[in-house]
Each structure stands twice: as C-alpha cells, then as structure tokens.
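Our platform keeps sequence and structure together, in a single record for each protein. Such a record has a labelled line for the sequence and another for the backbone structure tokens. Nothing more is needed to write down the fold, since each code stands for a local backbone conformation. For reference, a complete record is included directly beneath this paragraph:
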Amino acid sequence: MTFSKELWESGAAEVYAGIVRHPFITGLTDGTLPHSAFRYFIIQDSHYLRSYSRALALVAARAVDEDAVSMFARHAADAIAVEQELHSSLLGSLGLTSADVDSVGSGPTTTAYMSYLTAVCATGTYAEAVATVLPCYWIYREVGRELLKHSSPDPVYAEWIAAYGSEEFDAVVESVLAVTDRLGAEVGPGERDRCHRHFATTTRYEWMFWDAAYRELDWPV
C-alpha cells in the first residue's frame, strides 16, 4: 500500500464521505446554498489561502530535493495567485471587495486551521509538514470531481466548481501525492504515527471549514 493511500484510509475516507454529504456541498450543486454562506466561505478561504501559501513555503524550505523545493515554492506562489484572481472574480459576483475580506477577518475555524498548519510546518519534520498540507490538496480535488458530476444551476457556484475540478489542479495533486509516496519509504514508526495524526487533524479541519461556512460561524465573544 502506498503511503498516501495508507493516510487516506486511516484518516480521511470516512471524513470525506461526510464532506460530500454536507449540506454546504449539496447546496452548491442544487443551487439552494444561501449566497451569504458562500460569501462567508470565500472570505474565509481568502484568509486561509494567504496562510496556506506561507505553510507551503515552509514545506519548500524543509524539502530534501530540488524538485520538491521548486514544486512547493511554486505552489506557494500559486495559492496567492488563486486568492487574487479567482477570488477577485467571485468577490465581485457576490458584491464584495478585498476591503470587505480584510474588515471581516478570519473566523474561529479558519484561525485554528491556519495556526495548526503553520505550527506543524514550522516545527515538524519534512514528512510531517507534507502530511499536514496534503488534505487541502487532495480533498479539494476529490470534492471538485464530485461537484463536476453535477455542476450547479447557480452561475457563481458553477464558476467555482469548474476551477477546482480542472485537469490542471488534478495534475498538481498527483505531483504532491507522488512526493508523499516517496517519503513513505523513509519515515520511521514514530514519525509515521505523527504523520497520521497530522493528516487526520487537517482532514477534520477541512470538514469543519465547510461546516463553519454553512453555519456562518462567528466568534462567540
């Protein structure tokens, strides 16, 4: 069994099944999701991508071969480009501006997820860092494939679905999975257990991110 499949089966398969059944996801495809929930999602995703790009830069700094350094550094830059380009288009469609994103700030789930990513990528091993950032790549790819089967009657949602279900994004994910599988042959039992825990934790954060958007979760105090 490959290391990536090992991680998925032990820490993601059940959570992913819950994600595709979540009313945020089903509401995207049938068009019933309130635009206020999607606005919440896009704003929080903008904050998340800014932090994710920094986490990927940390992964690049820890990479042990030049190809991986180049790949993760490129992905870090691409995360910023996505935040600037795709979100700029979607923000306009939703009646929002970049100033609105900044004024709202990051919500409780977004802040917790960003903090966990940064902490592990800054203090863990290279393999731990890769396992921690992997669910964002992989789950978005799988969700994109699922959503592409249905698209959406809502043009705003259809635009977002088309971006994350693209062949280009699929190729990006496959390249990260290949790196993950190569690392699997090198990690010892203790490090492997930590990789499993980090992968499972950020997979849960993926579900929580969708759920926070659906509930438009705000700070309680």
